[in-house]
Write a structure and sequence with these properties.
This protein has helices at about 1-15, 20-40, 45-60, 65-75, 80-95, 125-145, 150-170, 175-180, 180-195; strands spanning about 105-110, 115-120. It has a two-stranded antiparallel sheet with strand order 1-2. The chain is about 75% helix and about 5% strand. The longest helix is centred in the C-terminal third of the chain and has 25 residues, at about 125-145.
């Protein structure tokens, strides 16, 4: 709810702004991933867990592309056309294999969760895509931070820190923390440093 609220508030502030639209995309895909993840781990039937798994990955697959697009828009990077096209094409390809058992083999009870997904070797490509996309976004942010001065540099530094916090938590699959606390780090940056 927090991520989606953040996306909507920022979008409504300037519906035509690329930064605002790509932030809405990032927030929306993150919110839907969280919703799907919660639905999967709390499902009472295997069928519902399968649908939830498909739903969560359908949105998670687009998080890297939207995040990269947002960072490119935020930093006003002009030479990133091909990296952006590549990110969206990879997301579309992964989206197309998402419903198949080439991506997730099964869902099964694990630890305290009712269901978790059992990834197969092709899933590693999603993980690599996610990591490479995030690292490249961070590279763009750091490159821009070094060029900028004053408040703009500080804004980008705080965004980088909040992005790193959220992505690292996502990578460690600390779902309860990611769903409740991490979107707040973005809010603090947006409110405190008036990003948008």
């Amino acid at each position: 709810i927090t991520a989606l609220t953040s996306g909507i508030v920022v979008f409504l502030k300037d519906r035509k702004g690329l930064v605002n639209r790509t932030w809405l995309g990032t927030a929306f895909t993150s919110a839907m991933w969280s919703l799907g993840y919660f639905a999967m781990i709390s499902s009472t039937t295997k069928t519902m867990a399968w649908w939830s798994n498909w739903f969560l990955h359908a949105f998670a697959i687009f998080i890297p592309a939207f995040h990269l697009h947002f960072v490119i828009a935020l930093t006003e990077s002009k030479k990133e056309k091909w990296s952006l096209i590549s990110a969206y094409l990879i997301s579309i390809m992964l989206f197309l294999i998402n419903p198949s058992r080439l991506f997730i083999h099964d869902v099964f009870p694990k630890f305290i969760f009712n269901y978790c997904c059992d990834a197969v070797p092709l899933y590693i490509y999603f993980a690599l895509y996610f990591v490479i996309s995030v690292l490249y976004s961070w590279y763009i942010l750091i490159r821009t931070i070094k060029k900028e001065k004053g408040l703009r540099s500080l804004q980008l530094k705080y965004f980088f820190l909040s992005s790193a916090t959220q992505i690292l938590a996502f990578s460690w699959l600390i779902a309860s923390l990611a769903m409740r606390v991490l979107p707040i780090t973005y809010h603090v940056c947006i409110i405190t440093y008036k990003f948008m």
